[in-house]
Amino acid sequence: MTTVDRLRFVIDTNVVFEGLTKQGSASGLLIDSWLANLFQPFATNALAYEYADVLTRKLSPHRLQKIFPVLQSLLAATDFVPVYYTWRPIANDSGDDHIVDCAMNTNASVVTWNLRDFRTAQAQLGLSLLTPVQAVQRLAER
Fold this sequence. Notes:
Order of helices and strands: EHHEHHEHEHEH
Number of domains: 1
Shape: globular
CATH architecture: 3-Layer(aba) Sandwich
Structural class: alpha/beta
CATH topology: Rossmann fold
Mean pLDDT: 92
CATH superfamily: 5'-nuclease
Distance between the termini: 9 Å
Number of strands: 5
Strand content: 5-15%
Helix content: 40-55%
Largest sheet: 5 strands, parallel
CATH class: Alpha Beta
Strand order of the largest sheet: 3-2-1-4-5
C-alpha cells in the first residue's frame, strides 16, 4: 500500500487515552493499527501536547511511565502539520478547534467518540468524522 492509498486520520485525545488504557476496545485496535503503520496519522504540536497532558493528569506516575514510551512511538510515526489556515470558531467545544484545523489542512478524517462536538464543522466544512469502530472497519476493508 502506498502513502497515497493510506487512510488519513487525526485521532482525538479521547481515542488515544482509551486506546492506551483499555484493552480490547476499538480505540485499542486503532492504536495497534497506528503502531503497525496501517494509516497515515496527522497531528499538530498542540494535539501532541494535549495527548501528553491528558495522560499525565489522568494516570498514576507508575502507569504513565509504562504508557509514555508507547505515546512517543505513536508520535514518531505521525506527520506533524503546520496550520496555515484556520476555521475558528467552528467546533461546539472550542478546545476542539485545533483538531478541525489539523484535519482540514491535511484532508484527513477526525476519529473521535465525541461526534457531537464536530457536527457543525461536518455540516459547514464537510469535515469527515468517524468513530473508532468505523475507522477500524475502514482499515479492515482495505
